[in-house]
């Protein structure tokens, strides 16, 4: 069985208006950023939007494996629902 491996993480950057949070999704094989999202708040929607972008742009045909640091955003109900929905469409 073939797999698509993504990794996700969040970083923050100081700008004149305050902190800006950036969530990225990287394809482990190509090492390219395949999804991202920015926000002034570090909510679950930040990581959900980044993963949604990656899935929408790449539309992986193989089984999707996503690694993260298991922070609060990645443990949220919204994120878990998104992951579950991805697995149902394999």
Note the topology.
Elements lengths: L2 E13 L2 E10 L5 E7 L4 H15 L4 E5 L9 H12 L2
Parallel strand pairs: 1-4
Antiparallel strand pairs: 1-2, 2-3
Q: Could you give the distance between the termini?
A: 12 Å
Shape: globular
Order of helices and strands: EEEHEH
The order of strands across the largest sheet is 3-2-1-4
How much is the radius of gyration in Å? 13 Å
Instruction: Indicate the structural class.
Output: alpha+beta
What average pLDDT do the residues reach? 90
Q: Supply the CATH class.
A: Alpha Beta
Question: Which stretches are low in confidence, meaning pLDDT under 50 for 5 or more residues running?
Answer: none
- The number of distinct β-strands equals 4
How many helices?
2
Whole-number tally of structural domains: 1
Protein name: Integrase catalytic subunit
Organism: Paraglaciecola psychrophila 170
GO molecular function: nucleic acid binding
Domain Integrase catalytic: 1-90
Features:
alpha+beta, 90 residues, globular, RNaseH-like_sf, Integrase catalytic subunit
Question: Your description of this structure?
Answer:
- There is one protein chain.
- By secondary structure, the chain is an alpha+beta fold.
- It has a single domain (3-88), classed as Ribonuclease H-like superfamily/Ribonuclease H (Nucleotidyltransferase, domain 5, 2-Layer Sandwich), CATH 3.30.420.10.
- Helices cover 30% and strands 39% of the residues.
- The protein contains 2 helices and 4 strands, in the order βββαβα.
- The protein has helices at 44-58, 77-88, and strands spanning 3-15, 18-27, 33-39, 63-67.
- A 4-stranded mixed sheet has the order 3-2-1-4.
- A hairpin with a 2-residue loop joins strand 1 (3-15) and strand 2 (18-27).
- The protein is globular.
- The protein starts with a strand and ends with a helix.
- The model has no long low-confidence stretch (mean pLDDT 90).
């Amino acid at each position: 069985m073939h797999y698509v491996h993504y990794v996700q993480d969040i970083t923050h950057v100081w700008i004149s208006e305050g902190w800006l949070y950036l969530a990225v999704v990287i394809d482990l094989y190509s090492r390219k950023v395949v999804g991202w999202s920015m926000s002034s708040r570090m909510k679950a929607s930040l990581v959900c939007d980044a993963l949604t972008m990656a899935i929408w742009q790449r539309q992986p045909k193989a089984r999707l494996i996503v690694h993260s640091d298991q922070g609060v955003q990645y443990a949220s109900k919204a994120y878990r629902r998104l992951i579950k929905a991805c697995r149902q469409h394999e």
